[in-house]
Amino acid sequence: MSKVTVHRNGIIETEIEFVNTDATLLGSLQKNAVDMLYHCKEGFCGACRCKLKSGSISYINEPLAFVRKGEILTCCSIPNEDIEIEIL
């Protein structure tokens, strides 16, 4: 189980627990009522892009959308440890 700290506009919005039964980081965020953009849920569109402030993630499927250094796609990633993300 990993702790996910969610920032929005530079302020901590919430902290949630990512459990192994959650398929993706996006799924866990949705389950915990974190409002964020998404579309394809497959790593194609990049709508769910977030900034990874600390920690590390693994991709279930390598994203096809362009991802800048320091950013992640929540729809196809899982945390490896406690992480902090900034909703863009």
TrEMBL record:
<dbReference type="InterPro" id="IPR006058">
    <property type="entry name" value="2Fe2S_fd_BS"/>
</dbReference>
<dbReference type="InterPro" id="IPR001041">
    <property type="entry name" value="2Fe-2S_ferredoxin-type"/>
</dbReference>
<feature type="domain" description="2Fe-2S ferredoxin-type">
    <location>
        <begin position="2"/>
        <end position="88"/>
    </location>
</feature>
<dbReference type="InterPro" id="IPR012675">
    <property type="entry name" value="Beta-grasp_dom_sf"/>
</dbReference>
<dbReference type="InterPro" id="IPR036010">
    <property type="entry name" value="2Fe-2S_ferredoxin-like_sf"/>
</dbReference>
<keyword id="KW-0830">Ubiquinone</keyword>
<protein>
    <submittedName>
        <fullName>2Fe-2S ferredoxin</fullName>
    </submittedName>
</protein>
<dbReference type="Pfam" id="PF00111">
    <property type="entry name" value="Fer2"/>
</dbReference>
<dbReference type="GO" id="GO:0051537">
    <property type="term" value="F:2 iron, 2 sulfur cluster binding"/>
</dbReference>
